[in-house]
């Protein structure tokens, strides 16, 4: 059984050498030799959302290598794109770049979606509030990703048919909801401190009807330490939800759950991305 839960106590991720190597040697140097290009912007019109969406795209080091013109690359769809783009890109390069020769994951195209309305796009259900709200548009947003954005990426880049969804907080909530959906186009999911308190009842009903389609996919779940005040709201809920999946599916489940005791909700994305991408790309003989 791949379901695990552990406490990460002593790992230090903010190592200056890590970032020195990443940003001084691995990024693509611009044509004028005076700039370092991390990626580029594209604009994708969404008929489903009735708006233009701004997307950040980063291509692997070898993408423009003349000897690699037939190579296809898996893609990461990253929520809260602008916030997590540089961090995710650095870790992806560190784990998979030919420069480092780590080979812990393949070189990957990173596709980061900039935000317009997080509450609208990342929540499946609407909460009752005194103020007017736009909540509950998560299903439409996933439809935009799967039927508009991914086809755009497939048509404009050499994308392999392997896709990973990454989200933090409300983005993590949407990531778990996508994992529970048997029709999801993603192959792997990385949920960072997901806000499942938003609608735990609906999520548990989805869990009860999970199929082998979801079970055969990998999910990495990171939980932050939000303190005693939020223990019931956060960690206890996470532990219970992951345990319910384990009890239902036992050794068939491909879920790894890590608790980062030394990290809070804001600091947890960095170590979670590192550990999560390593797990999602592990292969077993």
UniProtKB/TrEMBL annotation:
Entry keyword Cytoplasm: no
Keywords per UniProt: Hydrolase
GO molecular function term, any single one: hydrolase activity, acting on ester bonds
Domain of life according to the entry: Bacteria
Keyword presence, Hydrolase: yes
Family the entry assigns: Belongs to the esterase D family.
Protein name: Alpha/beta hydrolase
Species per Swiss-Prot/TrEMBL record: Flagellimonas pelagia
